[in-house]
Amino acid sequence: MPRVVVDVMPKPEILDPQGKAVLGALPRLGFSGVTDVRQGKRFELEVEGEVTDAVLADVDRMAETLLSNPVIESYTVRVEQDA
Fold first, then answer.
1. Three-state DSSP class for 56?
2. pLDDT (tens digit per residue) in 3-44
3. Rg of the chain over all Cα atoms, to the nearest angstrom
4. Residue partners of 21: CB distance under 8 A and separation at least 6
5. Which structural domain range is residue 73 located in?
6. pTM above 0.70?
7. Residue 14: which CATH number?
8. What are phi and psi of 61, to 5 degrees?
9. Which residues pair with 49 in a beta bridge?
10. Which of 6, 7, 29, 63 sits between 20 and 30 A of 43, alpha carbons compared?
11. Which regions of 11-81 does DSSP assign to beta strands (E)?
């Protein structure tokens, strides 16, 4: 089945406390060189049939109305190729 992926991230101007917590934990765990972390969400949607423009438009509406909060988050929709 085809898979459509929706990645949701906080907008750049929005504070990301989870990302900051991860950033603070990395040096304590022995990792260095990371200057910023932003934490988001990934949704994988398996769809029936072919991924058409109409299917992508439906997924875009899903992302805007349910999967993200457009006031504070941005999202991207993409088709993931089979591994």
1. helix
2. 999 999 999 999 999 999 999 999 999 999 999 999 999 999
3. 16
4. none
5. 3-80
6. yes
7. 3.30.1280.10
8. -65, -40
9. none
10. 29
11. 41-46, 73-80
